[in-house]
Design brief:
Blueprint: H1 4-20, H2 23-28, H3 30-51, H4 58-83, H5 97-105, H6 113-133, H7 138-155, H8 161-175, H9 180-183, H10 191-198, H11 209-225, H12 231-242, H13 244-261, H14 272-295, H15 299-302
């Protein structure tokens, strides 16, 4: 069943992702960047775990994974190549086919690590469901799945264990058949402990209890705000949220480009004008690229869908 509030949440947090992938903003607001990095991708992973389904045949599952992996691999390869000659922080010095394959399969750079983690988490989820899910109790199933994530993270070193646990939280909510808004109850009072926790740097980043609580409170407060927003704003957020895949894939094209025109906005030392302009350009540009791909029938080749724009 489609839940519009989840689109709204994805819209908020994809904008935050774009905002703090702007080097100028991250450098000028380093503490705020730490705060946002504490919860914005964990929220996406919780949502991904909650929305993931293992009720598919092996063929259907592999097909769905193919159309996540293919655009991920293409864009990650492009990012790695661009990082070898563009002035980015994740500079890749030696360029070779081995380097590209290593980044795609083992250690992605840029924002595409999320898709790499998503693929691994979903693959483990599907395999554990097929192997033991129908015979184990919900708690035992989640423990086994958590151990699987630990092995992939700590032994195979293929993803972050802390991020995989947020995916597991989403799977757990779904496994126990709890409604999302019953678990993350909207409350204006969430903002009070949220501010208190975020005021101390030791509470930020990682899988600490404080980070999990911060993530919960951010979702709670965001859901409280949703019905208070003007309808037009809420609908815009939901539209953005329905297109997070293409925004994630194509936004680095525009965040890299933003370095070229950033000096034009030096009249505003706060960076607000630069941020608003770049976010607008990035979202519009990503949606325009997707629209063109739909019209040229490239989406079927790239995403496995006739129309990707939602």
């Amino acid at each position: 069943m489609h839940i519009p509030q989840l689109d709204y949440l994805k819209g908020i947090f994809i904008i935050l992702m774009i905002l703090f992938h702007l080097v100028y903003i991250g450098d000028n607001y380093p503490y705020m960047k730490q705060v946002v990095y504490t919860f914005h991708m964990p929220v996406f992973l919780i949502l991904s775990g909650f929305l993931s389904s293992a009720r598919k045949s092996g063929k259907e599952f592999l097909c769905s994974m193919r159309w996540i992996f293919f655009p991920y691999a293409v864009m990650e390869a492009g990012y790695v190549i661009a990082s070898s000659f563009l002035p980015v922080r994740e500079y890749v010095g030696e360029m070779s086919l081995c380097t590209i394959l290593t980044k795609i399969f083992m250690a992605p750079v840029g924002p595409y690590w999320y898709l790499h983690t998503l693929i691994l988490c979903r693959l483990c989820y599907y395999l554990i469901v097929e192997l033991v899910g129908r015979r184990f109790s919900p708690l035992s199933f989640l423990i086994v799945l958590g151990l699987c994530y630990w092995g992939v993270s700590e032994i195979m070193c293929l993803m972050s264990f802390s991020y995989s646990m947020y995916f597991l939280i989403g799977v757990g909510i779904k496994t126990y058949e709890v409604k999302f808004q019953s678990f993350f109850q909207p409350s204006v009072w969430s903002v009070v402990p949220l501010i208190i926790l975020c005021s101390k740097q030791e509470n930020l980043l990682g899988l600490k209890l404080s980070c999990i609580i911060i993530t919960y409170l951010v979702i709670s407060f965001s859901l409280w705000i949703c019905p208070k927003l003007p309808k037009m704003v809420e609908q815009a957020m939901c539209t953005i949220g329905r297109n997070t895949m293409v925004l994630l894939l194509f936004s680095p094209l525009f965040t890299m480009l933003s370095r070229m025109y950033q000096p034009i906005f030096m009249f505003d030392p706060s960076g607000c004008c630069f941020a608003f302009f770049t976010i607008a350009i990035t979202i519009s540009g990503c949606l325009a690229i997707t629209w063109c791909m739909d019209k040229c029938r490239l989406s079927q080749w790239f995403f496995g869908k006739e129309k990707m724009l939602k």
